[in-house]
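Before a computer can learn anything about folding, someone has to put a protein's shape into writing. The three-dimensional part falls to structure tokens, numbers that each stand for a local backbone shape. The protein below has been through that process, and both of its lines are reproduced in full.
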Amino acid sequence: MDLLIKNGFVYDPINGINGERMDIAIRNNKIVESVIEKNSKIIDATGLTVFPGGVDIHTHIAGSEVNTGRLVRPEDHEKDFVRKTSVTRSGVGYSIPSTFTTGYRYSLMGYTTVMNPSMAALEAKHTHEELNDIPMLDKATYPLLGDWWLVLETIQKGDLEECARYVAWMLEITKGYAIKIVNPGGLESWGFGRNVHSIDDQIPNFGITPRDIMCGLAKVNKMLNLPHTIHLHTNNLGVPGNYETTLDTMKCLESIPSNGKPVVHITHLQFSSFAGEDWGSFRSGAAEIAGYINNHDHVSCDMGQIIFTDTTTMTADGPFEYTLYQLSGHKWVNSDVETETSGGIIPFHYKRKNPVNAIQWSIGLELALLIKNPWKVFMTTDHPNAGPFTAYPKILAWLASKKARMATFKRLHKKAQKKSILPSIDRELSLYDIAIVTRAGQAKALNLKEKGHLGVGADADVAIFDLNPEKVDIANKFRTFRRAFTNTAYTIKGGKILAKDGEILQQAEGKTIWLDMQTKKEIEISEEIKKKFREYWTVEYENYPVSEHYIKNSSPIKIKADV
């Protein structure tokens, strides 16, 4: 049956619609120009806010690191659980929810598309098994390529064309969506007990630098015509003074032709915006970072906003996790994934009365509010690293209401209050801005043309919130606003009503989006590469690729590459 959403306040920034009262018509899983009202199911959205379905550009929801996190944190299972209903399955997990629970919780908040940002190629099959298991959401995943030996070797040789062919092959055989780079050069160095500390440090055995990796893969990204930029976790993440490394990183990528479009997406930027010489002099570098981004168009970013809660940190940045282990003394998992990447997992508790944690909280919000263009900065928590994604409504309240963030600010450690510039920032994001930072901007950065908007031809993914923008003063009634974004009035995915007023009505399978790379020259894997598999990997080359039939609901995007 066709669906007609009538008379809602519609926010659709991609199409320039800012709170207009209008109808949204749906037929065959798509937004259409009109439907016959008497033949349609009607949703009366009078007095309600209508957004496109939410898009999350960076959230760790599947794969070996997530599953290992579940194994080492039984206490996380006990903290939160979901009971079985006639429609849904039971599930557990607070910071690392089980697959089904992940889908339910995102759907209840109005999200319909999420991107898993870190996948070791050797673990791709496991990652896709978990993605298959997550209901209610369309999803994709980014293979870790920055410290993969074949990338390092081809950049060392200066042969970017060969590098591009290998990257195209890797995206195809892992069913990935974007080039992910974590602590470039640092992961390979970690295999020898070292790290890199600037973008010009030498990487053991390869004689190249992080600068070479980032610039090389940014050029490869353009050669392959990939929909998303390189997705970068910077060097020196989580270290006082690292904002200078982040500035150096952004400056070095200025050399890549951009045509006014982003060349790099820096993820969880809060963790890369630290100033100070040590933890005693630790302060925010957000003003310097935001100032640079405001004056350059080749960078987009997401917040990585911390939440004061118990959570689980997980990243391919093995050296960082070891440093965090030394600082915290918590239980710790650290590993290398053969010739591809490293990784680590540590439980962590962010506390208001810890001055470093309190300044981190301030940094994330400072970045989001000081970066003037909301199309450049997106809302994330780097789930679960800075906190679980279920905290998104709380973050939106902080962004939309100075009163809300100051209520939290007053409870911070006094030292952190003195160092923060947050009280001087009056900006409050509008509903139009929020639609950008939570869906339109993220979909545009990912080049998902059928997501993040409500124009004709878009996927029929819609979130309707019990919020009347003509009657609710969000800045002062931020608790009402937060409640509205915690549970949608309706979540519609592919034209199906999945959730209503905080209850899942039906389950639906999401699709897995991946890139079907169409290169000019057929990619040939030489006997030399197959020999490397026999010598350095635990699997033969023939068992390495993920075939399309391995994915439950496959949605390939054909990409014509210039190699």
